[in-house]
Amino acid sequence: MIKHRENFISWDECFMRMAHLIAERSKDPSTQAGSVVVTEDNIVVGMGYNGWPRGIDADALPWEREGDFDKTKYAYVCHAEENSIYNANNPTKNCKLYCTLFPCNECAKTIIQNGIKEVIYESDKYADTPSVKASKKMFDLSGVKTRQYIRNNK
After folding, report:
1. Among the listed residues 57, 47, 51, 53, the one whose alpha carbon sits nearest the alpha carbon of residue 17
2. pLDDT per residue over 106-116, tens digit each?
3. What is the average pLDDT across 17-23?
4. What is the pLDDT of residue 128?
5. Given a cut of 70, is residue 90 above it in pLDDT?
6. Phi, psi angles (nearest 5°) of residue 97
7. Coil, strand or helix: which one is 133?
8. At 13, phi and psi to the nearest 5?
9. Is 122 a catalytic residue?
């Protein structure tokens, strides 16, 4: 009798790989972030990466990270988490969100308001920033679970 394969990847690995793959669509020269929203049954309903709002040319706005706010990318960029929710083809209530970076405070508000119940992130490199500290506080207060994905070296 033939048995099923034993060395298949986990759902977490599958969706985090997808988040990294969609991040490669980003035109941001310094940060490429990706996000995938999935149902409780592990069905993908949305994916997104960081970039300008739809219809804006990739070179029409500044990509700088420092300077006056309106002369940096931060005034204009849509984050991967937001885009994965905006791009969802079904409701996101009770879904999970996989993301390459821990969400900022603005993304946290969008995640909470759209009923996402769990955030699985890979990197928390901005953990000491006010934005991420605010995110964690809002997630705790709203009951959104967070956990860090640790890559399995298969």
Report:
1. 47
2. 999 999 999 99
3. 98
4. 97
5. yes
6. -125, 125
7. helix
8. -65, -45
9. no
Residue carrying the six token digits 């035109």:
27
Single pTM value for the model: 0.94
What percent of the chain clears pLDDT 70, i.e. is strictly above it? 99
pLDDT in tens, 2-16: 998 888 999 999 999
Q: Can you say whether the dihedral through the CA atoms of 82, 129, 132, 123 is positive or negative?
A: positive
- Residue 8 to residue 14: CA distance in whole angstroms: 10
Q: Shortest CA distance to 98 belongs to which of 152, 55, 46?
A: 46
In this structure, how many other beta carbons lie within 10 angstroms of the beta carbon of residue 16? Answer: 23
Q: Count CB atoms within 10 A of the CB of residue 14.
A: 16
Return the closest-CA partner of residue 63 out of 76, 53, 45. Answer: 76
Lookup: tokens for 10 = 């986990």
What is the distance between the alpha carbons of residues 50 and 79, in angstroms, rounded to a whole number?
4
Burial of 78-108, coded b for 16+ CB within 10 Å and e otherwise, reads bbbbbbbbeebeeebeebbbbbbbbbbbebb
Instruction: Write down the catalytic residue from 81, 106, 118, 122.
Output: 81
